[in-house]
Design goal:
It is built from ten helices and 13 strands. It has helices at 72-77, 89-97, 110-119, 161-167, 181-193, 211-217, 232-241, 257-260, 280-285, 303-315, and strands at 16-17, 21-22, 84-87, 103-108, 128-130, 149-153, 172-176, 198-202, 226-229, 245-249, 255-256, 267-272, 288-291. Strand 8 (198-202), helix 6 (211-217) and strand 9 form a beta-alpha-beta unit.
Length: 317
């Protein structure tokens, strides 16, 4: 019995899988390793990022169901570039009583409102907002001694030197590069205590009005005229022409303030910063350099302390 003829051998057609489609050969130049993904295979697509919930700003926590980091009152209580917060009962009462002061908001606790009314009877020029003590943490520093009272106000406009001298012939203090606002506030407090006519500072090398300055002044910022001058040496000349004897405080001076103070004319005192003292031009323009008698145990006094001692010496008869 004869067998059927065999088919001629040739390339077999690729096998087909009923479920996976046509089989693919290995990538050119690389052998396929079982169980591993080829190096040039496309990575698996990453899952799409979940859209952020609506209504959340950049200041909010990225946690669902939580409150924003900054509550609405924190944004509302932030002062703008032309306002500042004055705090403390004495500073707030003095500012409310000052006709030159312009203010916008008054925040008080229940206890502070009663204490403020005892110092300054109502009616006040604006309605107070009753708040809890925790509210002050949204716009004041942690170390601010606010006593539950804060006033949002504009800085005081500077006083002309001629106007200050026309109102009083008391002692005038000139601050030469005293930059610490707390020192300036303490000097203003002493100036108010001893009836000084004005405190003169430079426009540039002096601190602007701040809440810390007003708190250290304990209300004197709104009672003692503050004069801002471009050039202190010119202010000294103006005082000399007005009949003032101008004395510069210098620890190396040979004469004490008590021995040099005149009895027939008002005095102006020039005080420098603790580290550098008076600058050359101010030293040369003064009528005389004087010192406070202190022991060798300490090199110098804080400028606000020196101002208080000097004002007391000038007030003594």
């Amino acid at each position: 019995m004869s067998r059927p003829p065999r088919r001629p051998e040739g390339p077999r057609p690729p096998s087909r899988s009923p479920s996976h489609g046509p089989a693919q050969g290995p990538v050119q130049g690389h052998a396929r390793t079982p169980g591993r993904t080829p190096r040039h295979a496309a990575p698996a697509p990453e899952p799409a990022a979940e859209p952020a919930p609506k209504g959340r700003g950049r200041n909010a926590r990225d946690l669902r169901g939580t409150e924003p980091l900054h509550p609405p009152e924190a944004r509302r209580d932030k002062p703008d570039h032309n306002t500042l917060w004055l705090y403390g009962l004495h500073a707030v009462a003095a500012a409310l009583a000052n006709p030159r002061r312009r203010f916008k908001r008054l925040l008080l606790t229940t206890e502070a409102e009663a204490a403020l009314e005892a110092k300054l009877p109502k009616p006040w020029k604006l309605q107070a907002e009753r708040v809890e003590r925790s509210r002050f943490q949204t716009f004041l520093t942690e170390d601010a001694v606010h006593q539950g009272a804060a006033l949002l106000a504009e800085p005081l406009p500077p006083v002309d030197l001629e106007d200050a001298l026309a109102a009083s012939r008391g002692t005038v203090l000139l601050l030469d590069q005293v930059t610490d606002p707390r020192n300036v506030g303490a000097i203003l407090r002493s100036a108010a205590a001893f009836g000084a006519a004005a405190v003169i500072m430079q426009d540039r090398n002096a601190p602007p009005e701040t809440g810390a300055m007003a708190r250290a002044a304990v209300g004197a910022l709104d009672t003692v005229p503050v004069v801002r001058e471009v050039n202190l040496s010119r202010a000294i000349v103006t005082l000399q022409k007005a009949g003032y004897w101008v004395m510069g405080m210098d620890g190396a001076a040979k004469t004490t303030l008590a021995a040099a103070k005149p009895k027939d004319r008002p005095v102006a005192l020039v005080l420098g910063a603790e580290d550098s003292g008076l600058r050359r031009l101010q030293r040369e323009t003064c009528d005389e350099l004087v010192k406070l008698p202190i022991t060798d145990a300490i090199e110098s006094l804080n400028v606000s302390v020196a101002a208080a001692v000097a004002l007391y010496e000038l007030a003594r008869t």
